[in-house]
Design brief:
The chain is built from 11 helices and 11 strands. It is of the alpha+beta class. The strands form 3 sheets. The protein has a 5-stranded mixed beta sheet with strand order 8-7-9-10-11. Strands 2-1-3-4 form a 4-stranded antiparallel beta sheet, with no helix packed on it. A hairpin with a 2-residue loop joins strand 5 and strand 6. Helix 2 packs antiparallel against helix 3, helix 2 crosses helix 6 and helix 3 runs antiparallel to helix 4. The N and C termini lie far apart (about 55 Å). About 20% of the residues are buried.
């Protein structure tokens, strides 16, 4: 595959032709693409360019040359036109903001920076980026966290950033160098849907009352004794049996005819996991675990540690020892940064959290 991209700017009032266009061309070569491959293009405008381009239209033209399975060389041309927003009115950007695509693009940019900088510096950069966005587009009153509001175009973006900074893409703790390269490389080539599964995994619940899968929050409170959970992290498909379910299974109740509903409950997540695995390449690893088992860490490391008491334990899912901040603390400290902008360049929310404990 051979890609050639052109971008140019013309006056918005120009009705015929392209008029005076400022063109730039760039070329790339790709070894191959599949149906899930995506490419990200980043455009950064200089300050003087922003003033000149106000009210004008920018177009991007991508020319893809590739060899078809028939042996013929084909050319595909894609042209996209976008109007520059008014720099004095940033809320013109709100209707067109795609928070899911923005999250994936930020993740890829973070991976690029992580290959050149220390992980803590990348996390600080990510925190600063989030704080800048919410300070510009959120509605809030100073020193009143309860007044914080984000429009529907931005309301999921903070939680995406929360889960991104806890994953293995920007920091390498707990994974081997080979695993780190594999995780990062996969995120940089997959489509938006698959990338979001890697960043914020999908968690499904199965219970005796309702054996059909129900989406639940990616939270420690979802780990209950009487349910089965299915977590898809893209690289792992994890089936977690609650404490009661695991004990019933060990005692063989699911093999008795009068407890057929328990057998159906145990089979349901495995059938769904099989469908996920069959449709994905590279093939994810299937993990079946339960409270206290070693591989349970794969599930607990991805959930939000919201419900921990003074002894850092949860009610139903056993000990949960972690230094990670919860989603609530993450957002509370982000609001502190908004109210105290002098902290922005010096410390991230994690460092501030440690200082607060001392």
């Amino acid at each position: 595959f051979f890609f050639q991209a052109e971008d140019g700017i013309r006056d918005a009032q120009e009705s015929r032709g392209l008029g005076d266009v400022y063109k730039r061309q760039t070329q790339w070569y790709m070894g191959g693409l599949d149906r899930c491959s995506t490419l990200g293009f980043y455009f950064d405008l200089a300050q003087q360019t922003k003033e000149v381009t106000a009210g004008k239209v920018c177009y991007f033209q991508f020319k893809s040359t590739y060899k078809h399975s028939s042996g013929k060389i084909r050319l595909r041309v894609t042209t996209v036109a976008r109007k520059f927003s008014d720099p004095n009115n940033i809320f013109d950007l709100v209707p067109g903001f795609d928070q899911e695509a923005a999250c994936v693009l930020m993740a890829r940019l973070g991976i690029f920076k992580a290959n050149q900088e220390e992980s803590i510096e990348v996390l600080k950069w990510l925190d600063r980026s989030l704080i800048r966005i919410v300070s510009k587009f959120a509605d809030y009153k100073k020193d009143d966290p309860g007044s914080f509001r984000l429009s529907k175009e931005f309301n999921l973006y903070p939680q995406f950033m929360f889960h991104l900074r806890r994953g293995h893409f920007l920091q390498t703790f707990g994974v081997s160098p080979d695993e780190s390269v594999y995780f990062r490389g996969t995120l940089c080539r997959e489509n938006t849907t698959n990338s979001l599964v890697m960043i914020q995994p999908a968690l499904l619940q199965y219970s005796l009352d309702d054996p059909t899968p129900i989406p639940v929050h990616l939270d420690i409170d979802s780990l209950k004794n009487n349910v089965i959970l299915l977590l898809d992290t893209y690289f792992h498909v994890i089936i977690w049996h609650g404490d009661h379910i695991q004990k019933w299974k060990e005692q063989g109740y699911h093999n008795q005819p009068e407890y057929e509903n328990l057998k159906l409950l145990l089979d349901a997540p495995q059938e769904d996991a099989k469908l996920i695995i069959e449709d994905r390449f590279p093939v994810p690893k299937l993990v079946i675990t339960y409270p206290g088992e070693g591989l349970e860490r794969l599930l607990k490391s991805r959930v939000n540690p919201s419900n921990t008491n003074a002894n850092n334990m949860t009610v139903q899912s056993g000990n949960y020892i972690t230094d990670d901040a919860s989603m609530k603390l993450f957002m509370d400290l982000s609001l502190i940064h908004i109210s105290e902008p002098t902290r922005l360049l010096s410390i991230s929310y994690a460092v501030f959290c440690l200082k607060k404990k001392k």
